[in-house]
Design a protein that fits this description.
Layout: E1 17-19, H1 110-119, H2 126-129, H3 141-147, E2 153-154, H4 164-176, E3 189-196, E4 199-210, E5 212-216, E6 221-224, E7 231-232, E8 239-240, H5 245-258, H6 285-290, H7 307-316, E9 326-328, H8 331-345, H9 349-361, E10 367-368, E11 383-384, E12 394-395, H10 403-407, E13 417-419, H11 421-432, E14 436-437, E15 440-441, H12 445-451, E16 469-470, H13 473-476, E17 485-489, E18 493-498, E19 503-509, H14 523-535, E20 546-548, E21 556-560, E22 572-580, E23 586-593, E24 600-601, E25 604-608, E26 615-617, E27 621-623, E28 631-636, E29 647-654, E30 662-672, E31 675-679, H15 683-686, E32 690-692, E33 695-697
Parallel strand pairs: 2-4
Antiparallel strand pairs: 1-9, 3-4, 3-19, 4-7, 5-6, 8-13, 10-13, 11-12, 14-15, 16-17, 17-18, 18-19, 20-30, 20-33, 21-29, 21-32, 22-28, 22-30, 23-24, 23-27, 23-29, 25-26, 25-28, 30-31
Helix pairs in contact: 4-14, 5-8, 5-9, 5-12
C-alpha cells in the first residue's frame, strides 16, 4: 500500500517511481519511504480492530463466499452494468513466454508486434484472437491434465522432481526468521508451501498466528498474550493477503477482456466517465494493470467519512507525470480498476471474486471480509496506533489490515482478500496449467500469457505483466527468471510462479505483527526463494557431477586449468556451460594468462543444446539468464599461443545482494587437430584443476 501519512513504515520494494530512462536491470531497490511491500510504493497499513468491517452484503454463506449486493459499499451509487465494448486491441499475441533481458532478442517480440499492429490500425478482438475454451482443451500436457480433473496432491520431493535436502532447507530458512532478524523477529509465524507440477512437496507452519496483544511505540515494547492464549500457526491458517489481492483483480479484468466487455488499450474514461481531469482521460486499462498511469502511489481514503467523499478523492487525483512515461506502483490503479469492473459487470468485486475465481476453483478459504467464525484460524496482523498507522484500531485480527481497504468496507481492488497457502497453490497451478484446474477453466491459455508478458520494456528492472510482477530478484531470489511471475503483500505474504521449471513457492508470514517497523526488506522471501531454486536440479547429460560456482551473495571464485602448451594455432577449448545470474551483477568470465598473474578475456561462442545459431561473446563473459538449459561453449586459442605456455580459467562473480541459480561448467576439453591437450574426464588432468570457490556438484 502506498501511504502519504507521516507514519513510519518500512518498504520492501524499489523506489516508487521509475521514468522511461534506462536503468541497470536487476538492481535491488532501496526501501520505500512508507511501507509498501510490492516493489514500489508503500502499501497502506491495514486496520482492523476487533469490531467488524462489514463490506457490501457481508453475510457469510456456508462455503465462506459471503453475499454481496451489486452496490459498492463505499461508492454510494448503483454499479450499473455498462456492456457494449466488444473489441480489445492487445499488445502480445499467444506464443512463447516473454524473453528475458539477459537473452539476445531475435525477431519481433510479442509486445512490439502488438504495438505495430495497433499502429497500423489493426484492431484485434481479444475474444476472437483466443481459441474457444472447447478448442483450447487440446493444448499442452499440463493443460490437458488440468482439464482432466487432476488436482494438487501431497507428495515427496522425489515425486515432485526436487532435491529433498535443499527442499528441507527452504523450511529451515523460513524458520530462521522467527528469531532476531537482525534484532526483532521478522514475523511471529509463517506458512511456507512449495511444489512442482501437481505435487506439493513442502507445506510447513511455524511460530504463532497470534502472539502479541499490545505494542507501545514510545518504548518499543510489547505485551504478549499469556502462553495459553496464544495461537500456533497451522498449515491452514488464513492470512490477510494484502496486495496479493491485486492479482485476483487483474485476473478478473482479463476475464472481462475475454468476454469482449473490456479493451486493454481503451481509455479508462470509456467505462468510468468520471475518470477525467489533469490528464486522467489519457490513462488506459493497460496502464492501470502495469502501474504506468502516472498516478501517485496512494491517497488517504480512510480520512473521508462518507462514500461520496471517498469517490471525490479518487476523481480529484491527477497524474503526477504523463500516463505511460513513468513506472510507479500505485494502489489507486487497482482501486480505479475495481470501480471499472463493478461498473461493466453490475456486480461488486467480492461477488466477482467468488463467482469467477474461488467457487469454480474450489478455493473455499479465500474471500473478502471473512466471517467472525474464521477469527481463531486467522493470523493476527498489526497493533494499529498513530503515528505508525493512520488509524487507531488496536490489534487487527480477522479484519483487513490495510487502512484504505478497511475504509472501503473491506472490499477493494488493491487489498482485502484473505486466503490460505493451499488456496494460493491452487491459483498457482491454475495459471501454470493455462487457466484451468480440476476440469474447471477460469482463463484461456492466451489470457494467462497476458498476465506473464512484460509490458514495461521501457522501464528496465520493473518488468510487469497484467497485474503480475516479473523477474524480480528482490523478493523472488534465485527463482527469478524472465518468465517468473509473482507479487508480495505488505502483511508479509508472497507468491512466485516459475513456468520454466513448473514450480511455485508461497510464503505467508504475519510480519506486521505486532508492528510494521519490526521488519525491513524481503530477506525471508529471498532466502526461501534461493533455497527452493537450488532444490530444482540441474542435470548433466552424462548423469554425473559438474563444476558449480555456488550461490553465495557477493561470492566469487576461479576454476583454473593446468598450464598447457599448444603446438599449433588451432587449439580450442570446448565445454558445456549453464548459467543463471542477476543481470549486470553476476557473470561468468573465460580468461587466459601466460603466467597465472595477468589475465585477459578469451572470446567464445555458445550454442544452445536445443539448437539454433551460435551466439558470440567477444568480451569473454556472459551474464543474466541462459534459459535453464545447457550450452556448448567453444573458444579458439589464437596462433599467438602456439609453442607458448597458456593458462585458462573460468571466473565467477556475484557482486550484488541477490543471486541467480549459479553457473555450471562440465566436460572441459582443450584440443588441437593432432592431440588432446586437456580432458577433464582423465583423472590425471582432473587432479590438476585448481578450484577456488567452485565445487563438484551432482545437482
Amino acid at each position: 500500500m502506498a501511504q502519504d501519512t507521516g507514519a513510519t513504515a518500512v518498504g520492501d520494494g524499489r523506489d516508487t517511481a521509475r521514468t522511461a530512462a534506462p536503468e541497470p536491470p536487476g538492481r535491488p531497490g532501496g526501501p520505500a519511504a512508507s511501507g509498501t511491500d510490492s516493489g514500489a510504493g508503500p502499501e497502506p497499513a491495514p486496520a482492523c480492530p476487533s469490531g467488524s468491517a462489514a463490506g457490501p452484503g457481508g453475510v457469510a454463506t456456508p462455503d465462506g463466499s459471503g453475499g454481496a449486493s451489486t452496490t459498492p459499499a463505499w461508492a454510494g451509487g448503483t454499479a450499473a452494468g455498462a456492456g457494449g465494448v466488444a473489441t480489445a486491441p492487445i499488445g502480445p499475441n499467444g506464443g512463447a513466454g516473454p524473453a528475458g533481458r539477459a537473452e539476445p532478442r531475435r525477431g519481433v517480440s510479442r509486445r512490439r508486434l502488438g504495438a505495430r499492429l495497433l499502429a497500423l490500425g489493426g484492431v484485434l478482438a481479444l475474444h476472437a484472437a483466443f481459441p474457444g475454451s472447447a478448442g483450447a482443451a487440446g493444448g499442452g500436457p499440463a493443460e490437458r491434465r488440468a482439464l482432466q480433473g487432476l488436482r494438487l496432491r501431497y507428495g515427496s520431493a522425489r515425486q515432485a522432481g526436487l532435491l529433498e535436502r535443499h527442499l528441507e532447507a527452504v523450511a529451515d530458512e523460513a524458520r530462521r526468521f522467527l528469531g532476531p532478524s537482525p534484532e526483532r523477529p521478522y514475523y511471529a509465524g509463517a506458512v511456507v508451501l512449495a511444489g512442482r507440477g501437481r505435487t506439493v512437496a513442502l507445506h510447513r507452519a511455524m511460530g504463532h498466528a497470534v502472539r502479541y496483544a499490545e505494542y507501545d511505540g514510545r518504548t518499543d515494547r510489547v505485551r504478549e498474550f499469556p502462553a495459553a492464549e496464544r495461537i500456533a500457526m497451522a498449515e491452514d491458517t488464513v492470512f490477510d493477503l494484502a496486495s496479493l489481492t491485486k492479482l485476483f483483480t487483474s485476473v478478473l479484468a482479463v476475464q472481462q477482456m475475454e468476454r469482449g466487455r473490456l479493451e486493454l488499450e481503451a481509455p479508462v474514461r470509456r467505462y468510468l466517465p468520471e475518470f477525467t481531469g489533469g490528464g486522467k482521460e489519457l490513462v488506459t486499462v493497460r496502464q492501470l494493470l502495469t502501474h504506468t498511469s502516472g498516478l501517485r502511489s496512494w491517497a488517504p481514503f480512510y480520512q473521508e467519512s462518507t462514500p461520496e467523499g471517498r469517490l471525490r478523492l479518487l476523481w480529484s487525483v491527477r497524474p503526477q507525470e504523463p500516463p505511460g512515461s513513468v513506472y510507479r506502483y500505485s494502489d489507486l490503479n487497482l482501486i480505479a480498476l475495481q470501480l471499472l469492473l463493478e461498473r461493466i459487470t453490475g456486480r461488486t468485486l467480492d461477488v466477482l471474486l467468488h463467482d469467477e475465481i474461488t467457487a469454480p476453483l474450489g478455493m473455499h478459504r479465500t474471500r473478502y471480509n471473512p466471517p467472525f467464525s474464521w477469527r481463531r484460524v486467522t493470523a493476527a496482523t498489526e497493533v494499529q496506533r498513530p503515528p505508525w498507522s493512520g488509524l487507531d484500531r488496536g490489534l487487527v485480527w480477522g479484519e483487513v489490515h490495510d487502512e484504505n481497504a478497511y475504509a472501503l468496507g473491506g472490499v477493494a481492488g488493491h487489498a482485502g482478500v484473505f486466503g490460505t497457502a493451499w488456496d494460493l497453490a491452487v491459483l498457482a497451478r491454475t495459471l501454470l496449467d493455462g487457466g484451468a484446474y480440476a476440469g474447471r477453466r477460469i482463463l484461456r491459455p492466451a489470457s494467462v500469457e497476458l498476465l506473464f508478458t512484460d509490458y514495461n520494456t521501457a522501464f528496465p528492472g520493473d518488468d510487469h505483466g497484467l497485474g503480475f510482477e516479473l523477474y524480480q530478484h528482490w523478493y523472488m531470489g534465485a527463482m527469478a527468471t524472465p518468465h517468473s511471475a509473482g507479487h508480495t503483500g505488505f502483511t508479509g505474504t508472497s507468491l512466485v510462479l516459475d513456468p520454466s521449471t513448473d514450480s511455485f513457492l508461497i510464503l505467508l508470514g504475519n510480519s506486521v505483527h505486532p508492528v510494521r517497523t519490526w521488519r525491513a526488506g524481503s530477506a525471508p522471501r529471498v532466502a526461501v526463494g534461493n533455497r527452493f531454486a537450488r532444490a530444482v536440479p540441474v542435470r548433466t547429460r552424462h548423469g554425473g557431477s559438474a563444476w558449480f560456482s555456488g550461490m553465495a551473495p557477493g561470492g566469487s571464485g576461479t576454476l583454473t586449468l593446468p598450464p598447457l602448451v599448444p603446438a599449433t594455432g588451432s587449439a580450442r577449448l570446448r565445454c558445456a556451460v549453464w548459467w543463471d545470474t542477476v543481470p549486470g551483477e553476476g557473470s561468468l568470465h573465460l580468461e587466459v594468462s601466460p603466467d597465472g598473474k595477468d589475465w585477459a578475456p578469451l572470446p567464445f561462442t555458445t550454442v544452445r543444446s536445443t539448437g539454433g545459431a551460435a551466439e558470440e561473446w567477444p568480451q569473454g563473459s556472459v551474464s543474466g539468464w541462459s534459459g535453464r538449459i545447457w550450452h556448448r561453449l567453444e573458444a579458439p586459442l589464437t596462433a599467438a599461443w602456439a609453442g607458448r605456455e597458456v593458462r585458462i580459467r573460468f571466473r565467477h562473480r556475484a557482486a550484488g545482494r541477490y543471486v541467480g541459480r549459479g553457473v555450471y561448467v562440465d566436460v572441459v576439453r582443450v584440443a588441437e587437430p593432432a592431440r588432446l591437450l586437456f580432458a577433464e574426464d582423465r583423472p590425471a588432468d582432473a587432479a590438476r584443476v585448481e578450484a577456488v570457490g567452485w565445487t563438484r556438484s551432482g545437482d
